[in-house]
Amino acid sequence: MFDVGGFEILALIVLAIVVFGPERLPEFARKAAQLLHYVRGLASQAQEQLGEELGPEFKNMDFRDLNPKQFVKKHLLDEVEPIVADVKNELNSGKDAIKNATSGIDKDFDLKNVSDGGPTPVAANGALVPAGMRCAPWDPEAT
């Protein structure tokens, strides 16, 4: 419900110590715990009362399903998740195929010896590198 991390909790504790002081802080913490317990009790009583008034048809109803986000996730996205998983699997298999197809490129060509317009580069197997695969000349003073 709340997105509060460890740093935020630590900051709240330090702020509480500064505002209330270390002498009164245990008293306020006790009161806050009692208030939280009371509010949770009210919420559970309200759920029980609503369940009783709705009748036995809604006895096992989960009130979290009434949240619109949960409703959409449960009823609409359950049908989409298998499709998304299939698409992810196909993309991963395509990525693996591309990796396998391109894995031999660095073995075929010695790209460390590619010059910037000097002599014609030679592949590791001794063949000349085609002109379309040569690196363009690089001018360090160009902007």
What's the layout of helices and strands?
Layout: H1 6-54, H2 68-75, H3 77-102, H4 105-108
Describe the structure.
With 143 residues, the protein is mostly helical. It folds into two domains: 1-61; 62-130, no CATH class. 61% of the residues lie in helices and 0% in strands. It has helices at 6-54, 68-75, 77-102, 105-108. The radius of gyration is 33 Å and the shape is flat.
Secondary-structure content class: mainly alpha
> Could you spell the SSE succession in H and E letters?
HHHH
Instruction: Please tell me the total number of domains.
Output: 2
DSSP strand content: under 5%
Number of strands: 0
Shape descriptor: flat
Average of the residue pLDDT scores: 78
Summarize the structure.
With 143 residues, the protein is mostly helical. It has four helices and no strands.
Which properties best describe this structure?
143 residues; flat
